[in-house]
Specification:
single chain; alpha+beta; outer membrane lipoprotein receptor (LolB), chain A; 11-stranded antiparallel sheet
Amino acid sequence: MKTSVFIFVLLLCLGPLSARTDDVSGAFSYPLSAETRGRFNSVCGALAEHPFVKGNFEQTKTLSRLKRTLVSRGNFIIAADMGMVWETLRPFPSTMTVGRDFIIQQAASGSRTKIDALGNETFLRLSAVISAVFSGNSQKLLDNFEIFFTGAEGGWIVGLVPFEQSIRSFANRIVMRGDSVIRSINLYENNGDTITYILSNHVFPGALSPIEKALFSD
């Protein structure tokens, strides 16, 4: 699979946004500074407390040129050392697992397709960056994004502008909102389209079930 397709699939897995212009400008009004670095690290630390996070998602993709909105809903699993699972229930059942160096797509029929990204450095780097977003790896975020931040653990907004051109070609800006967990992620594409993920009903199991673990294996 081409690098560009890998990136698109990964970014598609990231989640819900708001397309309101004022939300965008507000998120990028506060560059990370020496005064806010401590609060930013505290937020990242809170996100890193749970190795496993499960919950529900709603994804809304707004196609600006067609003036259409596509909505899907389902469940997610974030495993800090393994990757992410996005189980879409509506409108069409399917499951996508994004690992460190692979993607597995499973249809409602149970058929599975594995895409191996081993050796694809761009994919591997982006996969690590996305993992950093969900696991609260503040240094990895600083290495890969220009960061904007306001708030504290009780309620915060993070704006991310990718340094890497290959990432910017699909998502030139990313906005995350949350408190002790990530509540939403907005991806703003160069063509004017947006993808919004709303994450809800978070739970923090001590381990994954055998069925859940199997989603990360061949």
